[in-house]
């Protein structure tokens, strides 16, 4: 069971990924393909529905051409 | 199956957690207790044996009193 505090972290991360994806004019499909993860997973991550692993977080940062810490800093 | 690239990311993260923990003179047990995760999990994370989730990464950063991005930046 993910506690409330974690839900905030997971939702904030999802919003950040969405913000960065849109700022680069990428569709969820384009981001998913270049990150090598399923399209459905990008949607669920952006909506804060799933708790991504470090390797998924890294795959997303690589696909966005950003250092991983940029996914956590505005 | 975690690919090689991911293994590097996971190992680097583990080394970083270990480096930060030691710099704060914390034992694995103290870090685990304040992060609310099992001691065995801290050891396995530090050795790069498991692929931690975002909420575990956040729990570790909180326990180390650091913003989450500091776990990814030297």
TrEMBL record, chains A, B:
Pfam families: HTH_3 (PF01381)
Recorded superkingdom: Bacteria
Domain HTH cro/C1-type: from-to ranges: 17-71
SUPFAM superfamilies for this protein: lambda repressor-like DNA-binding domains (SSF47413)
CDD domains (UniProt xref): HTH_XRE (cd00093)
Keyword tags: DNA-binding, Transcription, Transcription regulation
Entry protein name: Helix-turn-helix domain-containing protein
